[in-house]
Amino acid sequence: MSIQDQKKHWEATTLKKVIDKAKERREDFSTTSGLEMERVFLPDFEWQSYEEKLGLPGEYPYTRGVQPTMYRGRFWTMRQYAGFGTAKESNERYRYLLGAGQTGLSVAFDLPTQMGYDSDDAMAEGEVGKVGVAIDTLADMETLFDQIPLDKVSTSMTINASAAVLLAMYIAVAEKQGVSSDKIMGTIQNDILKEYMARGTYIYPPSESMRIITDIFAYCKDHVPKWNTISISGYHIREAGSSAVQEVAFTLADGIAYVEAAIKAGLDVDEFAPRLAFFFNAHNNLLEEVAKFRAARRIWAKIMKERFGAKDPRSQMLRFHTQTAGCTLTAQQPDNNIMRVTIQALAAVLGGTQSLHTNSRDEALALPTEDSVRIALRTQQVIAYESGVADSIDPLAGSFLVESLTDQMEAKALEYIQKIDDLGGAAEAINRGFQQKEIQDSAYAYQRAIERKEQIIVGVNQFTVKEAPPKDLLKIKPEVERAQLKAIAAVKTGRDQQAVEARLAALKTAAQGTENLMPPILEAVRAYASLGEICNTLRDVFGEHQETVVL
Q: 214, 197, 196: which is closest to 205 by C-alpha?
């Protein structure tokens, strides 16, 4: 079939189904000079491998995007990752962002919450509310989402080891708002494998962690069908120093491991795979990043179709959230970060992201101020409404450079995936320190390039100026921790302690057996058992993971 015949068939089938349900943003897409911006541009010559390598938007292998209309239908979800101090302070920031035009929430949790400790635990001292919001009990979650309708807002939660508890709290808050669990929308990161290799906020050993993850898959399939049960994350792999190729390869290898674990647990691939989502970094090399996103979609589509036999097209689609690269932000000349974030956000949009967070200019120094957050959000809005890049799908397709980079990215990533398969899969390769060593070597090489000025960082190793100390930075005050300690003490004093103990005992029994852990976790949350109490109950049964040190 010729390329033009492929397009006609696509317009009559795949595209028509979407257009009949929801029209595009505008009737006419053209430039200010009146030049037509077609929905999708195609080569005017016969390209032998076009259908195999590119195809059309919304069709296998999804190189050109997972939706037939992409941003002509609607823009990506504009999220700003936010959370600090107490739930009340974070709630105020969320409502500010929603009022400024943000279309989804992205929640940052403090380190104790991520590690499964309550704010009154000795392990939490000095860290409460520092890098995100402190959540100890359902009462905190109720405050966090006060006056935010959970049937209308999509919420992403960056939480991994304690993800099951936070998801249960979110479900319980929705219930209190009168919103049933089948109506709520959002994502939990829930990606523990990258924690072992790149980030470190793990609690339990790998096999027990994988059990919790597949229990979440199974529970949400039946009870929370609109929820993305995992966001398989390359972001932190890249932040730890990996290359773009390694980010794609290690992330998709983790995805393979999760799919295999779910199938082993008795789930059919097409029952859970449509709710898998991914989370990538957007770095500074714009064209490499665009190629990275396109290659990742193509690789995943082939893996799901050929390796796992997925028949539902949604199971073959790699849908992803993007965050601009925190590791590229500099404390020197921080206003330069605005330009860096703009380039990175543009790469994500040109690469076909489904949602996007743009970092703020001052995040190398402190938590962002409201002014900085507004600039970061406006960056997305200017790209969406003023740049024109959202008016046609996959606008860089057909570029000799971009297509070559996409092919090279795919080939090199598949080489890594094969190495990981040969080692016994992602989890076993992590146990052997393979990914950790590769990331360390890549990070070292990049830093050496900066030190030798082979890699120029504007304002850091070239074009430097003498700068005054920064002013007006957002700092978390000691009063935050004291307030949180009072709050958790009040909850523990006022709750039915006998009910809490009974629910925790039921959870322990479930953990010692094979039943799904989500129902007893949800029951414990409803009784106002704390996050730390729930995680400690599981610690008693599962134990804690000990890190593999790689030199």
A: 196
User: Which amino acid belongs to residue 362?
Assistant: D
Nearest to 66 by CA among 268, 380, 305, 300: 300
SS (H, E, C) 193-234: HHHHHHHCCCCCCHHHHHHHHHHHHHHHHHHCCCEECEEEEC
Three-class SS of residue 107?
Answer: strand
Beta bridge partners of 322: 280, 356
| Burial of residue 7, with CB atoms counted within 10 A of its CB: 0-12 exposed, 13-18 middle, 19 or more buried | middle
Can you list the alpha helix ranges (DSSP code H) found in 387-399?
A: none
Say which residue the tokens 């029209």 belong to.
23
**Can you tell me the distance from the alpha carbon of 257 to that of 207, in angstroms, rounded to the nearest whole number?**
11
Residue with tokens 């074009």: 463
d(CA 198, CA 247): 11
As a whole number of Å, the CA-based R_g of the chain is 23
The position carrying tokens 């036999």 is 309
Q: What is the pLDDT of residue 551?
A: 65
Question: What is the rounded distance in angstroms from the CA atom of residue 481 to the CA atom of residue 461?
Answer: 38
Q: Which amino acid is at 139?
A: A
Distances (CA, A) of 160 to 185, 316, 454: 18, 24, 37
**Helix H or strand E segment including 288:** helix 286-302
How would you classify the pairing of strands 227-228 and 355-357? unpaired
Residues forming a β-bridge with 154: 104, 185
In our burial notation (b when 16+ CB lie closer than 10 A, e otherwise), range 20-48 reads: eeeebeeeebeeeeeeebebbebeeeeee
Say whether 108 sits in a helix, a strand or coil: strand
Q: Which of 188, 133, 141, 185 is nearest to 162 (CA)?
A: 188
Q: Measured between alpha carbons, how far is 174 from 179 in angstroms, rounded to an integer? A: 5
Give all strands of the β-sheet with 355-357 in edge-to-edge order: 227-228, 185-188, 154-158, 104-108, 77-82, 355-357, 320-324, 276-282, 230-233
Q: How far apart are CA 441 and CA 243, in angstroms?
A: 10
pLDDT along the chain (551 residues), means of 10: 93 97 95 97 93 97 98 92 81 89 88 97 94 95 96 93 98 97 96 95 95 96 95 97 98 98 95 95 98 98 98 98 97 97 98 96 88 94 98 98 98 98 96 95 97 97 92 80 95 97 98 98 98 98 86 65
Contact 255, 301 (CB under 8 A): no
Helical H segments across 110-205, by residue range = 111-115, 138-144, 163-176, 193-194
Q: Is 302 exposed, middle or buried (0-12, 13-18, 19+ CB in 10 A)?
A: middle
Report which DSSP code applies to 468.
P
CA distance 477 to 354: 36
Determine the Cα–Cα distance for residues 351 and 345; give it in Å rounded to an integer. Answer: 10
